[in-house]
Amino acid sequence: AILIIGGAGGVASIAIQLVRALTDLTVIATASRPETRDWVMDLGAHHVIDHSKPLADEIKALGIGSPGFVFSTNGTADNLDAIVELIAPQGHFGLIDDPEALNVSAFKQKSVSTHWEFMFTRSMFETADMDEQGKLLNNVAELIDTGRIRTTLGEVMTPINAETLKEAHRKSEAGRAKGKIVLEGF
């Protein structure tokens, strides 16, 4: 199983679909509001747990065991102790947010691997596998074209001005966004 934290956000919304399309893992996503719970279920999550409650207790209540994978898209610093508790031994922990400090030594006893994802690493450092970015995007395009995954567009805000930009940031920072927020039109 995989636990995806921040399930209704833009990155997590795609991650849920990719995991369902490309693996046989059971997908557990976090969401707390009725509309975000519905959103992640519609995207393919098998289970939804409430991130406003203790995550380890929520996982235990499912009765399916500890997830071998945890992907944290936000709130990693706040959830780290719970992640350490709930992840399976020899599990894999991936994250994309930027916690100020992250003490990964807590994972040592369970031999958990930690994986960062930053979409610009290959291009910034001209890594030997730079062409993989294009291959990944082509694979995603094929999944979209064949209907195996869909857009994660949650809201379009217009026009692009200081006020709509501030409102989009408020929604995103407050954890109130569902899917991706797009700003368009001047």
UniProtKB/TrEMBL annotation:
Family assignment from sequence similarity: Belongs to the zinc-containing alcohol dehydrogenase family. Quinone oxidoreductase subfamily.
Taxonomic lineage from the root: Bacteria, Pseudomonadati, Pseudomonadota, Alphaproteobacteria, Hyphomicrobiales
InterPro entries reported in the protein's UniProt record: ADH_Zn_typ-1 (IPR014182), NAD(P)-bd_dom_sf (IPR036291), Zinc-ADH_QOR/CCCR (IPR051603)
Protein's name in the database: Zinc-type alcohol dehydrogenase-like protein
Organism this protein belongs to: Aurantimonas manganoxydans (strain ATCC BAA-1229 / DSM 21871 / SI85-9A1)
Annotated GO MF terms: lyase activity; oxidoreductase activity; zinc ion binding
Keyword list, A-Z: Lyase, Metal-binding, NADP, Oxidoreductase, Zinc
Pfam family of the protein (one): ADH_zinc_N_2
